[in-house]
Design brief:
Helix content is about 25%, strand content about 30%. It has helices at about 15-25, 55-60, 70-75, 120-130, 165, 190-210, 220-230, 260-265, and strands at about 5-10, 35-40, 45-50, 65-70, 80-85, 90-100, 115, 135-140, 155-160, 170-180, 180-185, 210-220, 235-240, 245-255, 270-275. The chain has a six-stranded mixed sheet with strand order 2-3-1-4-11-5. The two termini are about 25 Å apart. It binds adenosine-5'-triphosphate (ATP) and zinc ion.
């Protein structure tokens, strides 16, 4: 069987979460910072550690079959690859930012202005769509210092908390794109079965992350009230306890309604609530 190759970031913001995701999929490999390739001992897969800038093209050209990279890099490099799965980490927004004292008030005011960025392709597309003719200046690092140096009137960059903007006298002006890490695949992958197996494992890890396993005790008198609060995957398991009028209820709860649900369960008579992380959910 041909060995698959997956490209992930060697070091940087996506490295740790990418490694964690693959390990949670049950893949055994050494994560040596110095090696470029790590074989997986229990799955026909090799992991390539690369700069994120190179991952989209490696996957497009078939040097790697799969890759984990920010959507922003895919958009910027304009490669032709399959989007296989959003991964829920590496979330960020790409914004145009302007100096606090900038005269720019509307998008049209950007006409004729110089905008510094490491993402010229994404910015050009945005400007064309909005019919703005501006001067896009490619800078590969520390874009945020360029207005202060008199090199540009605005910047276009990844913004997460806005702290870097603030400390450089800049303010967010327009959101252009939001991004998260995504699993991409080569368009002509031969080994579809293996890819499907890997995607199924990834999905089971992602689903498990979004849910908690909850066990609680409730008197039979309050059982229906508690069950009504738990739409769950299917109906919850109800287990008898030594105490004859009491039962234990086992169920899963989505992370996003967690605190709301827990307080309602308590009001409905639930006691001894135990919450546990879930490793995987296979459907
Ligand atoms: P490399 O050395 O691999 O080229 P890099 O310095 O270009 O790394 P990182 O800063 O590690 O890249 O960011 C990698 C990706 O992480 C970004 O392209 C983006 O998709 C995502 N990301 C998420 N949050 C942030 C953030 N706050 N700042 C920068 N990137 C972020
Ligand atoms: Zn990079």
């Amino acid at each position: 069987m041909k060995t698959l190759k997956i490209a992930i970031q060697k070091s940087g913001r996506l490295n740790e979460k990418s490694v964690e995701l693959l390990k949670n999929c049950g893949l055994n490999f050494e994560n040596y910072k110095s090696s470029l390739i790590s074989p997986v001992s229990n799955f026909p897969l090799e992991i390539l550690f690369l700069r994120d800038d190179d991952i989209p093209e490696y996957v497009q050209d078939g040097i790697a079959d799969l890759g984990i990279v920010g959507e922003n890099m895919i958009e910027e490099t304009e490669v032709d690859v399959d989007y296989l799965q959003r991964l829920g980490f590496g979330k960020c927004t790409l914004k145009i930012a302007i100096p606090n004292n900038s005269p720019v008030e509307t998008l049209a005011d950007l006409g004729g202005k110089a905008i510094a960025t490491s993402y010229p392709a994404i910015l050009e597309k945005f400007l064309v769509k909005n019919n703005i003719k501006a001067d896009v200046r490619m800078i590969s690092g520390s874009v945020e210092i360029s207005p202060g140096l008199g090199l540009s009137d605005a910047i276009f960059d990844i913004v997460s908390t806005g702290g870097t903007l603030k400390s450089n006298g800049l303010k967010p002006f327009a959101d252009v794109m939001s991004s998260e890490a995504i699993l991409i695949g080569n368009k002509n992958i031969e080994n579809k079965d293996l890819i499907e197996e890997l995607i199924a494992r990834i999905q089971s890890v992602l689903r498990a992350k979004e849910t908690k396993y909850v066990v609680l005790n409730v008197s039979k008198a309050n059982l229906q009230q508690v069950i009504d609060l738990l739409p769950g995957v299917k109906s919850p398991s109800v287990v008898p306890l030594a105490e004859p009028d009491w039962v234990a209820v086992h169920t899963v709860i989505p992370e996003r309604d967690f605190w709301d649900k827990i307080s309602k369960l308590k009001q409905a008579g639930a006691q001894g609530i135990v919450v546990m992380p879930i490793e995987k959910i296979i459907v």
